[in-house]
Amino acid sequence: VSTQSTWEAVVSTQSTWEAVVSTQSTWEAVVSTQSTWEAVVSTQSTWEAVVSTQSTWEHCPLTCNACGFGCVDTEDAFMFRGEEHFCHEARGNSDDFCDYETPQEACPDTCGLVCVDPETGGSDGGSACPASDPDYFFSYLGVAAPFNEGGVHTSCRAISSGLISALTGAPSGAQEAVICALNVGDAGGFYDNTPVPRDACRAECNALDATSYPCEATCEPVAAGTWLWVNYMNDEVAAQVAVEASNDNDCHATVHILGDSGNAVQYANGDLTEELAMCSCSNTTNGNGALACEEAGFCSRHAEGRCFPGESLCYV
After folding, report:
1. What separation, in Å, do the N-terminal and C-terminal C-alpha atoms of the chain show?
2. How far apart (Å, rounded) are the C-alpha atoms in residues 67 and 59?
3. What is the pLDDT of residues 218-231, one digit of tens each?
4. Contact criterion met (CB below 8 Å) for 239 and 289
5. pLDDT for position 302
6. How many other β-carbons are positioned within 10 Å of the β-carbon of residue 66?
7. Which end of the chain has fewer beta carbons closer than 10 Å to its terminal beta carbon, N or C?
8. Residue 94 is inside which H or E element, if any?
9. Where would I find the beta strands (DSSP E) of the chain?
């Protein structure tokens, strides 16, 4: 394996590759240098050969993601709606079956959930990873097909369910690890104008290997100074954002309640959704801050956020 051409000859066939990794001493020689390893993973076809045999899985379980996917269906019966059920009942009808919490907990693999992988340290996706586009599909092993319930497809759900590994007889997650590692130049130019799977299926690839495919929680804050309606002391009252939310404060904003501005209240950024309407005054108002009471385009002063019947609070 001293030259690239020699290495390509070594891995040109499955039988030759299996012979290469059939012994511990040979394997150690193969991966003993950086240059040799780079040659191993330099092309998609060679990489597929690397992770497609049992010998390689045993030597490199983490790299080949052959440690188990982390989403394992229970083999036992579970109670649902007063009756015993088994996970195989969801196959071909997973949408109706997997809409409910009990089957989801019992059959996470069949239901295509993104689960924690205890070996690779993958996360559960959750709020840290953006939701994948259900219409996206990737190209792999000559197949590029949108989601097809009960059939062959290459959508992000194929990664989370381990479909490709199941179809090829590989250990759970092995083929999916290769899919998440695809680059722009792979698949004959398919990804020249299409995102690679690790960018389009971030939650699913993160579940396989959180270190290689991290998802960072993002906080898109409501801007400081924004006037909103918030629930305060069991009442909907006007409030203004004093300190906007950020990742550092767990995406919570500091809000001052109108009429009680000395009381700084923390609100989750996601709860600050109802902004005060902007005034369309035909006159000018004086005092009482940036708010006014409006009726039919005429504005008057507000009394600590309170307006007369028929008027609506707005910001100038």
Report:
1. 75
2. 11
3. 688 999 999 999 98
4. no
5. 87
6. 23
7. C
8. helix 94-97
9. 78-80, 83-85, 227-232, 235-243, 252-257, 260-268, 291-295, 298-300, 312-315
